[in-house]
Recover the amino acids of this structure.
């Protein structure tokens, strides 16, 4: 154990350089945040993740953001346990009807200013699941979406680039 | 113990074989035959492998664990009713409730008639039956089982949980800190996969199969592909068979690494997750470099594989094996040597051998409680018959045993990857890609059993002559593990639930479909 800690100390960080904020995401977000909101948020975002019918592939890659290689927290972005503490809902899945009420209630429980990010093809377009008896997706059919991060699942770098764009736009100038 | 008469003996007496079901036989039973089967099940140890509905029929699959014989039995139910198996095979109950909610089939004399997947939110009842019905007006709340006793209180958790995990509801009844009973309510991520597969060409249905449970995308794709290939009676190129196993083992390692770290993290030992998540990332990047997708989604397809291993792939994989062999053992030593960790995992969340056998639970949940079953070995499938590997089995049945089974499986999978890379067959003559086209013009029924990182997947499929899926039932291993989680937490403290849950890591999506 001690040896491990020493190697970690001397080995330098394993964390990789961040990708640039995603351009399409910046464009999508432009004008979505007013000055007051920017001032309030500063350079930090608290995210509550909601699985609204995901296959769990998206969750695996969202998890990866917390590993030391992507290390999301270095940007002031962190995942929180309660929607009450969140600025952003990161929603995955095609909104399974059995999850619709829980999703909407989680959104209602999130204090403003707040944003909703649709993560993954299912959330963005309904993916392969739209139109069935069991799903209401895409997410924008149910709640207002501020940012879309497509991919099945999106790579951690895509997720990072999208979230950084949100941070850029929300940060006070 | 293994029945007075063999599986096929009984089925040949009470049923008639159905043509065109591969590779195992399917028997059509009359109602009397079905009742005789239930009688037989009360006195033998055949494992229930699955149970699924169709508009006017119900099917179940069994294995005689001793001989490895597998068979499917079917009962026509023109009235939409069938005698329940739940009294003799408790694991059948939730599957029967699902068949009821989707196909409107009623299990007579069931041990539990409550709805399961249907939460009164679809706007329709029995959506996959011949006559879907209007929703119940003003549906009442779901009734949880009653719990009585002095000083009990309830803790409802979910469907939205505190972490980045899938949704489901847990109803704890506790006495102080001790859990007296846990009741699960699942179905929140039901996406209607079985209904969406119906009427789709095989290639499209394969995409849905790949998204049944993202963490087991390779295994579910493999089970679907093998079921389709069995139905069509085709054999895929040898190179594809070996590449599939390669991907499956990469998937197994990636998941076990992530989960071992996450279990320790739930015991407040974050160091381990920080380490194993780096190793996991290493595996995913290698998978990406070799197959073009970090989770290898849509890479196993009916007929073969979607992408061949690039030339540098073998080198990358051997490097990965070497690196993991260097970096993983010291972490295992830390796990083993940390008293504070062992204090949390040893004797926590025990599942008895009797329960895993009764529920036919596989994967690390079964093998940590002494159930020596692995689909790669029995019934077995290529190329595992040509590879050397062990199936680790422990008997303690606690969180620690489940961690150790996973640790040992990582080691085994590393060896398997090495063997596969070294012996990978060359591409067959006349092919420029390790896959063959699927001929249309013949249909059939096929079934496959595939070992995912989580346990055994059963996929059953029926294709029409155009190669269109008319019915597909993918049964995730979680179906037989979720009920045991309820038992595992009994008598433990509430704070140990995350540990127990993570040590199982059942799939919500794979179960809810
Ligand atoms: S986008 Fe893809 S990975 Fe994400 S939930 Fe949907 S199917 Fe799964």
């Amino acid at each position: 154990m001690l040896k491990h800690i020493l190697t970690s100390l001397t080995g330098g960080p394993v964390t990789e350089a961040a990708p640039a904020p995603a351009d399409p995401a910046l464009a999508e977000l432009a004008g979505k945040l007013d000055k007051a909101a920017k001032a309030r948020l500063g350079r930090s975002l608290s995210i509550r993740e909601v699985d609204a019918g995901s296959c769990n592939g998206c969750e695996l890659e969202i998890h990866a953001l917390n590993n030391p290689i992507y290390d999301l927290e270095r940007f002031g972005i962190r995942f929180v346990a309660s929607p009450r503490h969140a600025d952003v809902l990161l929603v995955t899945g095609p909104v399974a009807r059995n999850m619709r009420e829980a999703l909407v209630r989680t959104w209602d429980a999130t204090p403003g200013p707040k944003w909703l990010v649709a993560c993954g093809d299912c959330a963005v377009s309904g993916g392969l699941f739209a139109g069935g008896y069991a799903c209401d997706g895409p997410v924008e059919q149910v709640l207002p979406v501020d940012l879309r991060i497509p991919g099945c699942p999106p790579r951690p770098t895509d997720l990072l680039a999208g979230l950084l764009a949100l941070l850029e736009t929300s940060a006070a100038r | 113990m293994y029945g007075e008469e063999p599986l096929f003996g009984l089925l040949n007496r009470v049923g008639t074989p159905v043509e065109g079901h591969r590779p195992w036989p399917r028997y059509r039973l009359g109602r009397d035959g079905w009742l005789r089967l239930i009688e037989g099940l009360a006195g033998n140890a055949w494992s229930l492998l699955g149970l699924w509905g169709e508009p006017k029929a119900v099917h179940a699959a069994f294995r005689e664990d001793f001989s490895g014989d597998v068979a499917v039995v079917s009962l026509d139910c023109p009235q939409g009713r069938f005698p329940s198996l739940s009294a003799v095979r408790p694991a059948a109950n939730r599957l029967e409730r699902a068949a009821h909610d989707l196909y409107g089939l009623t299990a007579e004399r069931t041990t539990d008639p409550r709805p399961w997947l249907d939460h009164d939110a679809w706007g329709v009842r029995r959506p996959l039956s011949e006559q879907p019905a209007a929703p119940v007006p003003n549906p009442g709340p779901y009734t949880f089982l009653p719990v009585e006793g002095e000083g009990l209180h309830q803790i409802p958790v979910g469907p939205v949980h505190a972490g980045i995990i899938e949704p489901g509801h847990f109803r704890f009844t506790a006495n102080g800190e001790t859990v007296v009973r846990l009741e699960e309510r699942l179905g929140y991520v039901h996406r209607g996969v079985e209904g969406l597969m119906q009427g789709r060409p095989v290639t499209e249905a394969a995409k849905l199969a790949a998204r049944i449970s993202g963490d087991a995308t390779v295994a579910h794709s493999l089970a679907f592909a093998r079921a389709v290939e069995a139905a069509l009676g085709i054999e895929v190129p040898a190179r594809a068979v070996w590449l599939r196993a390669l991907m499956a083992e990469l998937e197994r390692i990636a998941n076990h690494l992530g989960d071992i770290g996450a279990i320790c993290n739930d015991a407040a030992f974050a160091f381990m997750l920080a380490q194993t998540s780096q190793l996991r990332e290493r595996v995913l990047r290698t998978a990406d470099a070799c197959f073009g997708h970090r989770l290898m989604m849509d890479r196993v397809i009916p007929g073969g594989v979607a992408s061949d291993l690039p030339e540098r792939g073998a080198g990358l994989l051997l490097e990965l094996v070497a690196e993991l062999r260097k970096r993983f053992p010291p972490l295992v030593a830390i796990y083993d040597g940390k008293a504070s960790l062992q204090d949390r995992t040893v004797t926590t969340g025990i599942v008895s051998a009797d329960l895993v056998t009764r529920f036919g639970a596989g994967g690390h949940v079964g093998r940590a409680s002494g159930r020596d079953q692995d689909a790669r070995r029995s019934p077995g499938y290529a190329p595992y018959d040509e590879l050397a590997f062990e199936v680790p089995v422990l008997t303690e049945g606690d969180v620690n045993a489940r961690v150790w089974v996973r640790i040992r499986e990582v080691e085994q999978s590393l060896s398997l990857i090495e063997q596969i890379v070294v012996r990978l067959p060359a591409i067959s003559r006349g092919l420029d890609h390790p896959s063959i086209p699927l001929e249309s013009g013949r249909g059939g029924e096929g079934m496959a059993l595939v070992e995912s990182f989580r346990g055994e997947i059963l996929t059953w499929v029926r294709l029409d002559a155009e190669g269109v899926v008319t019915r597909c039932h993918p049964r995730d291993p979680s179906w037989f593990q979720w009920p045991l989680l309820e038992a595992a937490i009994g008598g433990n403290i509430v704070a140990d639930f995350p540990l127990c849950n993570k040590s199982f890591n059942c799939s919500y999506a794979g179960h809810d479909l």
Q: What stands out?
A: Chain A touches chain B through 48 residues (CB under 8 Å). The first strand of chain A starts at residue 45 and ends at 51. Strands of chain A lie at 45-51, 77-79, 88-92, 115-119, 147-149. Residues 13 and 68 of chain A are 8 Å apart (CA to CA).
